[in-house]
UniProtKB/TrEMBL annotation:
This is Purine nucleoside phosphorylase. One of its GO terms (cellular component) is cytoplasm. Keywords: Glycosyltransferase, Transferase. It comes from Gonapodya prolifera (strain JEL478) (Monoblepharis prolifera). The keyword Plastid does not apply. PANTHER family: METHYLTHIOADENOSINE/PURINE NUCLEOSIDE PHOSPHORYLASE, PURINE NUCLEOSIDE PHOSPHORYLASE-RELATED. GO terms for biological process: nucleoside metabolic process.
């Protein structure tokens, strides 16, 4: 299956990659962390760089509207595996379009 593509998607991906070291530009695992998994990001490899990007700074990216949810994209190594963590999810009830979370 080919990855999704559109000018907006491509711009967002390039914007994120420009803020990461080469070792984090192509991740192997993605974890969507709701409230119960938020602490998982504390398990990343401490000796390696961790990149934290607020959703609000990412072009064409939704923001977390639930109070107390940080809304950060975190790129780091977890057991030496390049990993992306989405700290906060997007919900229909929070006013997001139904196409966004799918």
């Amino acid at each position: 299956m080919s990855p999704p593509t559109s000018p907006r998607y491509d711009e967002t991906v390039e914007w994120i990659r420009a803020r990461c070291l080469p070792s984090l530009q192509r991740v192997h695992v993605a974890v969507i962390c709701g409230s119960g998994l938020r602490g998982l990001v504390d398990s990343v490899d401490k000796e390696r760089v961790k990149v934290v990007i607020p959703y609000k700074d990412i072009p064409h990216f939704a923001t977390s509207t639930v109070r107390g949810h940080p809304g950060n994209l975190v790129l780091a190594h977890l057991n030496a595996i390049p990993t992306t963590f989405m700290i906060s999810r997007f919900h229909f009830f929070a006013g997001h379009d139904h196409a966004l979370p799918t």
